[in-house]
From TrEMBL:
PANTHER family: CHROMOSOME-PARTITIONING PROTEIN PARB-RELATED. SUPFAM superfamilies: ParB/Sulfiredoxin. This is ParB N-terminal domain-containing protein. Residues 7-99 form the ParB-like N-terminal domain. It comes from Roseovarius ramblicola. InterPro entries: Chromosome_partition/occlusion, ParB/Sulfiredoxin_sf, ParB_N. Coiled coil: none annotated. The lineage of its organism: Bacteria, Pseudomonadati, Pseudomonadota, Alphaproteobacteria, Rhodobacterales.
Amino acid sequence: MRLIETREMALDDILVEDRLRPVDEMGVSAILMTINEGGATTDPIDVRRVRRKGVVTYRLIDGAHRMAAERKLGNTTILASIYEGTDADARLMEIERNLARAEMKPVDRAVFLLEYKEAYEKKHPEARAAIGAALIAKRWDTTGTMPVVSFAAKIGQMTGQDESTVRRQIRAVKALERPEIDALRNSPNWICYKDIAEIGKIAEDEERRFAVQSLSAGEAKTVKAARKAYAASQGKAAVPLSDKDQKLARLADAWARAGEVNRRKFVEANAAEIEDLLKALYHGEDAA
């Protein structure tokens, strides 16, 4: 990408389309908080100038959250760095800018990694992992003095992650459909890389959708719990115990393993509370 200039631009003159992730209100709020606390507004957003059939348009590369924050402040302009380049280069810049940020959700980061891999290897076919005969030929090719680094190695340099971690994230999100990704983004529970990887391992579409729905609705806290619930719904396993029943089962197990001497000690130490509970039970009172 070639930088042309940096200047104030009207927000309405910038096209915002085909984004890899939606604007997150928490992200916008964080920017507004920084501004309200007296911090610098933000770095310039990145915009691409496109000239087609004599018509010039300006398309956003990076900075949707900053644009949203400026609108909330009632501003109509924003500082923008304007570039020229290809569609592929613009996509690579968008992804690189986002991957450099720490606040991204794991599911968003995995989506960006997959998109970056495809864009990077399209631009640099020689960076694709070679197999079979192609791998042998690549090993014996000594003509290149400046080989293009592999995608996973490049991401490792950018983010500090090892190559195997990068590849696992890509494999996981590649198995997900767009509605499933959107659902995980909105989950009330934090969806970590391990969760995404576990979901990606589910081969059956129906089971995977069930797991995603359970997680995104807060019905299951882990992928393992969601899969157990799915197996039960298909008659392949016992219905999972509720949180209340699990606690009761653990209490009963501890009582059974305690032995008579420890049970007597427990009853003596908790006699008053046990007596109150027995009275409530006798009178048919519900537990609080």
